[in-house]
Design brief:
Strand content: 15-25%
Radius of gyration: 15 Å
Structural class: alpha/beta
Helix content: 25-40%
Strand order of the largest sheet: 3-4-5-7-6-8-9
Oligomer: single chain
Number of helices: 6
Distance between the termini: 42 Å
Order of helices and strands: EEHEHEHEHEHEHEE
């Protein structure tokens, strides 16, 4: 399947009948979360590469969302940083983790890239709020979502958001609670 935006043709966005059957329940949950927050299914891509191509095709239009499973090559820190560089301001990446321990390295490294909205939270908590904030953020985003049960009792887990728009008022980084992981 192919679709065209502007003058560029690229692989098709997410459609249930063409989506790989190997996607986990957590990536399905992430896709459901995105659509419940108003993201059109046509703006959700089945691979990081197809989302990057769509996002870089034009500076105008809605965000292009890639939903990737954690613990794979698509969520490796260097892969995400390269995607942010190539995808431009319209790229948003959701990393869906289903088992623990959950590494937050990929989202922490995304903060180093610059004007990127970054969040790490559980599906049951502030995930919907993070997606909605991303929809109003003009730059790229990297979000890590996991079930609360996966991170319960994990001393290394920190729920946080990093919003560059808050930099002028003090700190772009906001952790939930008083514990912050040491990297």
């Amino acid at each position: 399947k192919f679709c065209t935006r502007g003058n560029t043709t690229h692989t098709a966005p997410f459609t249930r009948q063409y989506f790989p059957r190997t996607f986990s329940k957590m990536t399905d949950k992430a896709i459901s979360l995105l659509t419940s927050c108003g993201v059109k299914q046509s703006d959700i891509y089945e691979t990081l590469d197809s989302a990057v191509k769509a996002a870089s095709a034009s500076e105008e239009g809605p965000k292009c969302w890639a939903v990737v499973a954690a613990n794979g090559t698509a969520d490796a820190p260097n892969t995400i940083i390269k995607a942010l560089k190539d995808g431009g301001s319209r790229l948003s990446i959701v990393v869906a983790a289903s088992t623990g321990p959950v590494s937050q390295v990929q989202v922490l490294r995304a903060m180093e890239y610059g004007e990127v909205y970054v969040a790490s939270t559980d599906f049951e908590g502030k995930a919907a709020g993070c997606v909605k904030e991303c929809l109003f953020f003009t730059g790229p985003a990297v979000l890590l979502f996991t079930p609360a049960a996966v991170t319960k009792g994990d001393a290394a887990w920190t729920t946080f958001t990093y919003d560059p728009r808050r930099e002028a008022s003090g700190s772009a980084f906001a952790a939930e609670g008083d514990k912050v992981r040491k990297e």
